[in-house]
Write a structure and sequence with these properties.
129 residues; mainly alpha; single chain; elongated; 69% helix
């Protein structure tokens, strides 16, 4: 239980998810995790019924999104001029990608915290880093 209290106090804990151990917290965690995935995943009952699996898949999804944003960020100055994109738009695009990468990083940290709390609530010790 102490791990769950520390998890809920983290600044990376998503505000949409109730604190672990409180009434209905797992439902709010599941809803938040589902919202991070493309809508088509809502139809997969394996993901929606198994919270820990849902958290794992959300983490993988965010990792792939972060990889895609990094590639877009790293290639913008080389590839966008060839597409006819002007310098001002390229710079705005680079800033947008940087902001998105930060946001995805925060979400990934939140998913890790929620996933660890779901593990603890299911009786499995939280992962070590």
């Amino acid at each position: 239980m102490p791990q769950m209290v520390l998890t809920s106090l983290s600044p990376d804990w998503p505000c949409q998810v109730k604190a672990p151990g409180t009434h209905d917290w797992e439902r709010t965690a599941t809803r938040w995790l589902r919202d991070l995935l493309p809508a088509r995943y809502a139809g997969y009952s394996t993901l929606t019924r198994h919270h820990v699996l849902l958290a794992r898949h959300a983490q993988l999804q965010l990792q792939h999104e972060m990889r895609a944003i990094r590639v877009a960020l790293e290639t913008s100055r080389v590839e966008l001029p060839a597409l006819g994109v002007v310098d001002a738009v390229i710079e705005n695009t680079i800033r947008m990608y940087a902001v998105e990468l930060e946001q995805l990083g925060r979400l990934a940290r939140g998913v890790r915290l929620v996933g660890d709390a779901l593990l603890v609530s299911s009786g499995v010790p939280a992962r070590r880093r």
